[in-house]
Amino acid sequence: MKKNDHFVLIAISLIGLSSCMKKTDQDRAIALVESKFEKSGQQLNFDDSKLDSLYTIEPKAYADSLRKGNELDSVLAVLESEIEHFSQQESDSVGLISARITKDRYRLLEIAKVKPQFIGWKLTGVKTDELKTGVLTFKFNKGITEIVP
């Protein structure tokens, strides 16, 4: 082989080795949990564990709130356009329904103001030998440097 081929082979090997040695976020979380429990003597099983992100409000719940708010806006618009064609008793009933929908809409508008913000991580599905039927969950800060309550 030529000298350049040796250099390329060594460079590729080093890059591959360094990428294999990098710890994933889940590896770092597991290491923190293991260090917390190392003196307790408990055996932890991380085979089914999963690392998920934590938000102030889950992005899916936030999107659902926005969608539901838009639906309520449509319902309110229909009720307001039709209320003049009803009798007084029907109009009063629709007014009560409209008030309830409006109250729900304002609640959803408040939720929409609080956009999802990333606050950390959680490791779920950690089994221990002492909890035969249950699993443990741990929460971590954003950098996965400490376990938080």
Summarize the structure.
The chain has 149 residues and is an alpha+beta fold. The chain has helices at residues 3-21, 25-37, 59-82, 88-113, and strands at 44-45, 50-55, 118-128, 136-140, 147-148.
Question: Secondary-structure blueprint of this entry?
Answer:
Elements: H1 3-21, H2 25-37, E1 44-45, E2 50-55, H3 59-82, H4 88-113, E3 118-128, E4 136-140, E5 147-148
Antiparallel strand pairs: 1-3, 2-3, 3-4, 4-5
Give your account of this protein's structure.
The longest helix is centred in the last third of the chain and has 26 residues. Helix content is 55%, strand content 17%. The chain is α+β, with helices and mostly antiparallel strands and 149 residues long. Strands 1, 2, 3, 4 and 5 form a 5-stranded antiparallel beta sheet that branches. The model has no long low-confidence stretch (mean pLDDT 81).
Taking all residues together, what is the mean pLDDT? 81
CA-based gyration radius: 27 Å
| Beta strand count | 5
Shape call: elongated
Please, how many helices? Answer: 4
Q: Largest beta sheet, briefly?
A: 5 strands, antiparallel
SSE string, helix = H, strand = E? HHEEHHEEE
Distance between the termini: 58 Å
Strand content: 15-25%
